[in-house]
Amino acid sequence: MSAEKRNALGRGLGALLNNSEDKVPNTKGQVASSPQVNDMGSVNEIKISEIEVNPFQPRTEFDEQALIELADSIKLQGLIQPITVRKVNAHSYQLISGERRLRASKLAGLVQIPAYIRTANDQQMLEMALIENIQRENLNAIEVALSFQRMIDECNLKQDELGERVSKNRSTVTNYLRLLKLPPVIQASIRDGQITMGHAKALITMNDPVSQLYIHQQILQGGLSVRKVEEMVREMQQQRPSAKKDNKKPEGLTFQVQKIQDDLASKFGARVKLKMSDQGKGAIEIPFLSQDDLGRILEMLDW
Question: Which residues form the catalytic set?
Answer without folding.
Answer: 99
